[in-house]
Amino acid sequence: MAVRLPRGFRMGAVRAGIKPSGKPDLALLASGLPALWAYAATQNRAAAPSVHRGRRLYAEGRPLRAVVVNAGNANCATGERGFRDDERLAELAAFRLGLSPEEVLTASTGVIGVPLPVEKVEKALPQLELGPFADPFAEAILTTDLAVKVAEREVEGARLVGVAKGSGMIHPNMATMLAFLVTDARVPQEVLRERWKGIVDRTFNQVTVDGDTSTNDLAVVLANGAYGEVPLGPFFAALEEVARELARKIARDGEGATKLMTVRVYGAATEEEARRAARAVAASPLWKSALYGNDPNWGRILAALGNSGARFDPFRVEIRLQGIPLYRGGALPFDREKASQAMRAEEVVVEADLKEGPFQAEAWGCDLTEGYVRINALYTT
């Protein structure tokens, strides 16, 4: 079912010929009103020109009116030309919408080190049609993804819609993911920016597929105020729900994955330690391999927790898998075959109680399969 955008927003996509598949690969998001915004991007030192430009615009603090995205080409590690091409991408989108380039955010995703074919963008953009639904945009930004990722909520009449892409090269401090959330609620920009960082830390930065942090990642939320004011408590709760749903969809769609892994850590001394412990389990190649093989090898979970930097006493910690107690300060007797059968599910839940404090966190990942190796062994060949 098509997902309708909040008031004042339009999205569209077109085939520009950037993706070898010939699928839609150029997407545009536009707001009829200036939109206040909050932004987070990759911490990779080899960040793409789109990330550098986004950080500059963010620091300047002016509203946005549009976002243009190309998929199939990261426009990264292409020297000075890459920065010129990124600026040209903004200029072309601005011309298409009758805006200033400084009102347009850019994003790119795809192969690193290949010049962006700007001439294809120039030819395709005039043919791009905008409409009130998120679906064409959500499809066009995909690369190795198998599934479109869209989430929506309502808060007392205001709408929130989020669109994301991400499948591989996913690890905390952003991942190979792009996320665009839009709302017609009116939210003060300083509050939006302050709260967005925590939401990103608890959602998108808790996703890991393969331990690699990409060069192009970003997550942005735009609020154009077309609906009006709403209570900020329920609004930010809904915003986090949308971000969490998108994060879970990214993890479930991990390259070659057969199942979603949810890791819940309780009883941590600090929130940061809870997040680190949960991420460590979700990122462990040994545990991810055991997950694929339906092997309830709890020792790999305990080892990942111990390597996370989170404080705990291994003689007090508890570990459960699909609700089955496996470890409580020592190995517990359990039916190994029953536990293995419980792992043959769309979602496998790992729970660990560190017994150190009141804080908890979740992280999301997936199993590690032969499919992941095949996809990435042949990515450019």
From TrEMBL:
Keyword Cytoplasm among UniProt keywords: yes
The keyword Protein biosynthesis is assigned to this record: no
Regions crossing the membrane: none
Enzyme class, UniProt record, top EC level: transferase
UniProt-annotated binding residues for substrate: 143, 165, 176, 255, 376, 381
Site (Involved in the stabilization of negative charge on the oxyanion by the formation of the oxyanion hole): 109-110
Catalysed conversion reaction: L-glutamate + acetyl-CoA = N-acetyl-L-glutamate + CoA + H(+); N(2)-acetyl-L-ornithine + L-glutamate = N-acetyl-L-glutamate + L-ornithine
Highest taxon above the source species: Bacteria
Gene3D superfamilies attached to this UniProt entry: ArgJ beta chain, C-terminal domain (3.10.20.340), L-amino peptidase D-ALA esterase/amidase (3.60.70.12)
An annotated GO cellular component: cytoplasm
Marked site (Cleavage) residue numbers: 175-176
Assigned keywords, A-Z: Acyltransferase, Amino-acid biosynthesis, Arginine biosynthesis, Autocatalytic cleavage, Cytoplasm, Multifunctional enzyme, Transferase
Oligomer and partners: Heterotetramer of two alpha and two beta chains.
NCBIfam families reported in the protein's UniProt record: ArgJ, PRK05388.1
Record protein name field: Arginine biosynthesis bifunctional protein ArgJ
Organism: Thermus oshimai JL-2
